[in-house]
Structure formats: structure tokens, C-alpha cells
Amino acid sequence: MKHTVVALVEDRPGVLNRVASLFRRRGFNIDSLAVGTTEEQGISRMTIVLDGADGIVEQVEKQLYKLIDVVKVSDVTHEEAVTRELALIKVRCMSEQRAEVLDLIQIFRAQAVDVTPNSLIIQLVAGGETLDALVDNLRPYGIREMVRTGRIAMVRGNRTTAVHEQEPESAQRFHLESGRRPEEEHLQYVSK
Amino acid sequence: MTKMIGADIVLESLKRLEATTIFGYPGGVVLPLYDRLPAHPEIRHILVRHEQGGGHAADGYARASGKLGVALATSGPGATNLVTAITTAMMDSVPTLFITGNVGRNLLGKDGFQEADITGITMPIVKHNYLVMRAQDLAYTFAEAAHIATTGRPGPVHIDIPKDVFTEEAEFEWPTTVSIRGYRPVLRGNPAQVKRAAAIIDAAERPIIFAGHGIILGRAHEELRTFAEKAGIPVLNTLLGLGGMPHDHVLNYGMMGMHGSYWANHAASNADVIIGLGMRMDDRALGRFADMNPTAKIVHIDIDPAEHNKNLIATVPIVGDVREVLPQLCDEVAQRSHVEWIRWIDQVRDGHRTSMSIPGGETLTTQYVVDRIADSIGTEGVVVTGVGQHQMWAAQFMRISRPYQLITSGGLGTMGFEVPAALGAQVACPDRAVWTICGDGGFQMTFQEIATMVDERLPVKMAIMNNGYLGMVRQWQELIYQDNYVAVAMSQPDFVKIAEAYGIKGILVTDKDRVVDAIAEANAYDGPVILDFRVEAQGNVWPMVPAGASLTETVESREEIAQLLGQPIPANPEPAR
Ligand SMILES: Cc1ncc(C[n+]2csc(CCOP(=O)(O)OP(=O)(O)O)c2C)c(N)n1
Ligand SMILES: [Mg+2]
Q1: Is pTM beyond 0.90 here?
Q2: N or C: which end of chain A has fewer CB within 10 A?
Q3: Which of B19, B203, B164 is nearest to A189 (CA)?
Q4: How confident is the model at residue B418 (pLDDT cuts 50, 70, 90)?
Q5: How high is the ipTM of this complex?
Q6: Domain span at residue B333?
Q7: Are residues A72 and A92 in the same domain?
Q8: Which residue in B28, B177, B304 is closest to A192 by CB distance?
Q9: Is B163 annotated as catalytic?
Q10: Cβ of residue B387 lying under 6 Å from some atom of ligand 1
Q11: Does residue B557 form part of some domain?
């Protein structure tokens, strides 16, 4: 079964590598991974969709927690949550078909965001299944290119999965700044 | 606050951490650090002969002392030489700090001379790692690294430092505390879970304890003993859990697992309640998971929640430090004894002692040598081992009775651990007798560290169990691959001459009669000694649970193993002991 796991991680160099390396090493399969910033400076949010039994997901969560840079992990699969993906789809579309395609995508509340005499870029923000359905409907016209962001999710209602633990100033500064490569001009040249 | 260069900050930080012994090896990018060592006489730098040796020495030092072990290497090949030692420390959760230099910041990622992406390489084999990009971050990095290495489930932490960070100036500001919001180890057990566990334990008819490395790492041996005595529960040890209970305690039934005793494995398989303490339910200890006593209820206490339900589903998992949770549990359980159950185990033991006993007769065997060494140094000595048959015999016959009396690579099973780890243990325990039981194979992987022992006046006694074979591999080829011996017989150098070459004492022992005297001679000698024991070439370690079998399939002879594996019964059975 597909699970949606939200991991809040320190926005530090290498953190994506740590998470990816863990999934590879333990043989967990990632369906999609979306990473971005959050309301909190220094915290990034990863939304990971993975396929596996509940026991596997329990291990994924626990192994993620073992990473020092991972602050919080929540499995939102069984929660009431808003889940969304963004897709951009470039379809073959001659001028004479345009009205038909625009009608079609209207049903999905998708938008045309770029147009040429023989193609359209269609944008849709929706749950994964709606996206799949749109793609199926567009396939007969000829999909020339497609990109999907991977799922992001947020639990409905008052509950949050956010981190609200402020660290002491020195720790915060260290975690925000350290490990980053200084600008080249600040570095004197050293050979080995 | 004072301004200083990165190299001084590193050394000051180590002093603050009271980690003043470094096992290191120099090279281009760490020269700025070495340049500053003379200015910090409190720091003892031990020059090893190979970075792997330095890493294992730091590991042996950490286990023997309970303090943070530190190893240092240069970039590129120096750093990659640490990999085996880091992984060894990771698998056995040893609090260690590995410091490497790297090329200058402007050269990182440009494939310059001796650049290796060492933080990328160590990422999956450390508890955490750092690439320090500014001298001003060094002190905090060291404080945080040591905190991570030594708390919770301990483990190796790696710090990589570009050459020009060692020379960059910054204020030295030692943090009074560190705070990591993604790292808050839970030490006390959840009271409700403890109560549930106690109820299960109180209702048990045939409870058993699996005592793991966590008992040793957490120095929770007193707590274990108090708990076991109150609840009247017999104790089995994993390989790394040996020493959690005194060897001769009435409730202690010794090692379980692949080469555990017949009675321990059957007690594990017949218990109705299993209490796993500070152990990770490893396959070498438990055999085939699916058939690991499937009806028993399992109380699993470990500081690392990821160990719960990983290999076996726990009825009651408790996250916490065994040293904290055991007293909590002890308060909740009833005082009990389990006379019938213990009598049952005793009877099994009485019927199966021979398969795990010291052979009589004239032949010089590893079992006998180990037993005599145990006799000579008692429980106050430290015993290190390599990996293979001699390791299992040491585990079986060294009568391990206190934490880190035995130091061995359990999780990774690293041959070549024996000599450098013993070196580190001797540095940590200058007043204890340190013996290392070496394989003739493993010894040859890292014996270059004898030179370090000579330099540092470390009187380690190296007892080579010279069977002329990669013995454990030979055993598998005999028993599982039906006598198809491939790449296991080895010609050996003259080990006594190696001793001479290093200017230390060498003793050759070919006869059983000479063993006791040779050990006494080694103990009396004030310096390192190599003892070349020409032991039985083709002995096998019994009992055995073949890989993939269950603990109930513990076999005690070649015939039994052939039967289990559906092979023809061998025509030439082993000579009776
Ligand atoms: C570095 C390393 N390489 C290979 C092995 C596989 N291995 C396990 S035991 C063993 C034989 C060990 O031989 P020796 O050191 O002579 O000890 P013995 O079994 O003869 O007592 C081997 C090759 C290992 N554990 N470690
Ligand atoms: Mg051998």
C-alpha cells in the first residue's frame, strides 16, 4: 500500500543525501519525493510517498528518526489530509483541436499556460488520481512531455505536523550556518 | 575568548572533551594540525602504522575505558583506510570520533591530489558526520559530535576538516551545552509500558533474559543482576553481551546463538517470555527469525526504537536506557523463582555439556589454551579477539564476568581487529593484563601495529592460535560444502622471528605441557610478547547453528549437521574427545 510520510529536516548540506542513502541502503522504495522550505527558517519539509506494508513504513519512520538532521516524521496516510501534486503536460494540439482540448481540461479544472499553433502546456494542481485521469484523457492527442512534482500533503484542521521547537541561539546559528561552503572570494588559494 | 587557528581549536576542543589520546597518522592536509601538537602537551598522540589500526585502537580504547576513542587520518587514502574501523565501531555502537583532513576548501570537488569524498563515503557507516567549512564552527562541531557519539545508542562520528580550516583564525568559544532538536534520546522507560512488561513477566512460567551489548555499553550489569535475581530469571548472553553477568552466577547460562551452548539455545527456544535487554535481535544470536520461538511473548528494551519490531515483533517494546529501565522494571515485578524451569535447563545442560567442553587428550587445542589464559589472568585481565574459530572458543571458555573483559568485533566480524584493538585497550588500561587471542589469519592482517606497541611500551600479549587455516572458513567448507577446501590453508611465517624482528619476545608452543609455563613466562615479561601456539589444525567449533537454521536446530557433531542439511553421513567422523 502507498504511504505518505512527512519528514521535517534541518536544512543543512547533505541532508537529502542522508535520506536518499537511507532508503537505498534499507531497500525502501520511494515513489515520489518533494522537498521544500517551511514556515520555519532552517527547516525543510520532505514529503515521501512510498510503497510498502505497514511494518516497513514503521521501520522507515524509525530509521528516518535516527538521522540526526531529521526532526520530525509523521505518517499522514491514514489522516484526513489535503494532498496535491502539480503537473505540467505538453500535448500535441493543432489549432483546430484547441477548443476540444480546452473543454476537456475544463472538466479537471486544469489550465492552459502556454500555447503554440501545434501544442499546449497544461497545468493541473490536484490529487494524484485526478492527475492520472487527466493524463489518460490527454494521451490520445499525444503527450510530448510531462513533469510532475510529487505529492505534498497537509493534515486538515487544527493539528499540524510542524516543528515549533526553538533552539538556543548558539545552536540555531550553528545549525543554520555551518557546513556551507564560503563564497570563493573568501577563500585563499591553498594547494595540497 | 581568544583568537586561534583551527588546528589549535581542534586540540583545545579535544582537551575540553577529555579525549586527549589520539591514534593518528599524518599526511599533507593534516600537517597544520600536527604542527600544533607540540604546543598541546596534554594530548597524547600515538603514531600507528596503518590508519585501520588507528581506528581499531580507538575502538578498543573506547570499549576498555568507557571514554570517547579518537582516531585521526589524512585525506584520501588515509581517510579511506579508516572505513573498516569506522564500520566496525558502527556495528558495535562504540563511542568513537574519527577526524580526517581534506583538501583545501577551494579544491573540494575538483578531484585534486588525495581528495576523497570521505563524508560521502562514511555517511551510511556513522551515527553522524560533518564537513567543517569554517574555523569558527570547529568548537561547536566537536562538542556536538562528542555528544552524539557518547549518548543514546553510542556510535562513531566523523569530522572532516579541509586543510585551510586548520589554518584559518577564529575565536575559540567552547559551548557550554549543545542542543539538537532532531536528537533527544529517551532514557527512562514509559511507565505504562513498564507495567505491561512487568505483568507479562510476572505471569511467565519459563522466562528468559537475552542480555546484549547494551548492558555492557550502559554499564548496567549491576542492574541486570538485581533484576534477574529478584524475578528469578535465567540469563543468556549474546556474544557482545558476555560480561553482563558474572560467568559463574547461578542464573547465568552463557552464550546463545550460532556457537552458543545447546542448553542456551534450547532455553531460548522453550521460554514462554523473552526479555531482550540492550540487544538488537541479530540473526547470529537468534537463528532463523521465523522460527525463533514464535509463541513466546517478547519484552524488548532498547535505547534505539528502530530495533523494536525490526527482526522480531515485540509484545511490549520499551524505549530507554537499560540502566534506567531495569530498576523501573525491577520495582514492578514480583519476587519469584522458577525452580522447575531452571531444573529443566539444568537437565538439558547436564545432557549436553560435552559438545562445549575443553577436549582432553594430548592434542594442543585452542580451547585448552584459552582456558589456561583465563586461569592466569582471571577476570581482571582484558581479552581481545580476532574473528573466527578462536573468537568463538574465547567467548565459550574465557569465563567472561565483567563488562569489557572481552573486546571483540561482533557485528561486523572484522578480522585484523585483534592486534590494534588490544593496543588501544592496553593504552586505556595500563594496569591490566591485556591478552589478545589472535587468528593466524587475522594476525597477519594488522600486525604492523606491534611497532606501535614497541614505541609506546605497551606490553600486550599476543597469543596466536596457529592452526594453519582460515579455520572458521575451513569449518564451513568441511561441514557445509562437504570437504571442498578452497583457499583456506595458509603457509605461515615464523611468528617467533617476527617477534625478534620487532625486538619483542617470541615463544613457540607446540606441546600441551608447555602451555601453562609459556603463559606465565609471557605474563612475567615486561613488554609485548607473541606466543605461537601450534594448535590442532582441523578442530571444529561446537555446537553450531548453521546459517539460516533455527536455534532448535543446534547441532553438536558432523553427523548431526549432515543429517540436518540432508547430506550423506560422513564416513570418517571426527575422533571422539
Ligand atoms: C576482514 C575479513 N575478511 C574475511 C572474513 C571472513 N572470515 C571469517 S572467519 C575467517 C577465518 C579466520 O581465520 P583465522 O584468523 O586464522 O582464525 P581461525 O578461524 O583459524 O581461528 C574468515 C576468512 C572476515 N571475517 N573478515
Ligand atoms: Mg587460523
Answers
A1: yes
A2: N
A3: B164
A4: very high
A5: 0.92
A6: 191-352
A7: no
A8: B28
A9: yes
A10: yes
A11: no
